[in-house]
Design a protein that fits this description.
- This protein is α+β, with helices and mostly antiparallel strands.
- Helices cover 42% and strands 19% of the residues.
- It has helices spanning 2-22, 77-93, 95-99, 116-121, 147-150, 155-175, and strands at 31-32, 42-43, 64-71, 103-109, 128-135, 138-144.
- A hairpin with a 2-residue loop joins strand 5 and strand 6 (138-144).
- The radius of gyration is 18 Å and the shape is globular.
- It starts with a helix and ends with a helix.
């Protein structure tokens, strides 16, 4: 009986290891504050990344909430689905806030050297949604929305969750 339990445990371990080799990294946890925001990344897939020490553009000096979707070079269907749901949420539910500059979306590839400051700032090791409340170029607070993975195969719930986290940060910004 003990031998059968050991075989089952080894089989489960091997299956989990194999799944880890072929899937994207799963999220850890992190909610935190940081004193300085890196200003690298791509905003709405349009602007190229800029180094952390580059001067901020005028639009980047206003108080706002930034919804970052971080990913690596290697992307699975789940990662792409999470990103799609986040982008759809922002387009459909936050068009006014985006147009007013109160909300910005940035897709950032953390495997690119220029984006390494984000890895340290937000303690990243996986694809994730980070929602940050910013004043000028400084991050007042940020949140790793790790439940995005929990809802990754339920787009309506994922969109509701992303909207809830973005709205909560917009409310904090207004109260500032």
């Amino acid at each position: 009986m003990k031998e059968l339990a050991i075989k089952a445990l080894v089989s489960a371990f091997l299956l989990a290891a194999a799944a880890g080799l072929y899937a994207c990294d799963k999220p850890a946890t992190s909610v935190g504050n940081t004193a300085q925001a890196a200003t690298t990344g791509q905003e709405a897939k349009a602007a190229p990344a800029k180094p952390a020490d580059a001067p901020a553009a005028t639009a980047d000096t206003a108080d706002k909430v930034v919804a970052y979707y971080f990913h690596g070079d290697r992307r699975c269907r789940t990662c792409l689905g999470i990103q799609s749901a986040i982008e759809q949420t922002i387009r459909e539910r936050f068009a006014a806030e985006t147009a007013l500059g109160k909300l910005a979306y940035r897709e950032v590839n953390i495997d690119q050297e220029i984006n390494k400051p984000f890895v340290q700032q937000f303690q990243l090791s996986f694809s994730t949604l980070i929602v940050a409340t910013m004043t000028g170029d400084k991050t007042l607070q940020w949140e790793n929305c790790e439940k995005a993975w929990e809802y990754s195969h339920e787009p309506p719930r994922l969109m509701d969750y992303a909207a809830e986290r973005i709205k909560a940060n917009l409310v904090k910004l207004e109260a500032k």
